[in-house]
What does this fold into?
Amino acid sequence: MKIAIVILNWNGKKLLKDFLPSVVAFSKEATVYVADNASTDDSVAYIQANFPSVVIIQNDVNGGYAKGYNDALPFVEEPIFCLLNSDVEVTENWLTPIKSHFQSHPETAIIQPKILDFKKKTHFEYAGASGGFIDKYGYPFCRGRIFTTLEEDKGQYNTTQDIFWASGACFFIRKEVFHELQGFDEDFFAHQEEIDVCWRAFNLGYKTVCIPKSVVYHVGGATLDSLHPRKTYLNFRNSLCMLVKNLPKGTIFPIIFTRLVLDGIAGIQFAFQLKFKHTFAILKAHFHFYARISKMLAKRGKTQQKHYFNHKSIIYSYFIKEKKVFSDVHS
It folds into this structure.
């Protein structure tokens, strides 16, 4: 069972210099690809000169994470895709437990490793930690990370665990499942498209799993800082689109209405913090979502599973009951 590690690059020469060496050194059993999203720097020339074993796929345009991978992956032959961010440091033997689990669990379609913070290696990293879940209203959280609270890794989440979503920072998926799902939704551009893919896979009966025996370190925010209003806009807009596409029948509009209220509170909170650009980003996200709601409804699959959420309201638990760690809210 061969693995293709596919790194999406856009003007990322510095990141490639810092992180590609570990990927090449510790992934001898895999083929390493770099899918270049029409970069204008000399990152492609740098790869060609320094890493001749790396296969380069050149996309015609910068279509973001979603379209970038959709354009590149048809050129990849291996039966397992590993979609790896360019700001991830991998570790020795990181692929071994992943490959073993895929071979022994045919019902598993998607896997992520344990993701720790490159800048603080004792702690989980925001984008995925030790596996992702969502609450009833579509707000994501992780084993090891709820909102901005990052737990120290003390081995408390070292068990292999069925999860709801895997992080796009290091995202393994079977080739046939990726194509069955018709890839990422390109209307998302970037952010939460991996949760949408996992939800669509879940609706078809596939499993997503976290394998903590495999460990990687992620910088996070290397391409778009977490404090950037565009990130706020994409996260809020794409979360709403994902809900409309995947929620069980009869629950869409009550949950969207609740999200309107909760997102409004978030916007007011940003305003009180004088982060007015983020308030406007939430407003813009909602207006853009309403303009495309009919398009998202048309994308709904034939089947939606009812028991998709792990927790009723992570906002209530975190902000009202002040439960800040996953083990306190997990049921």
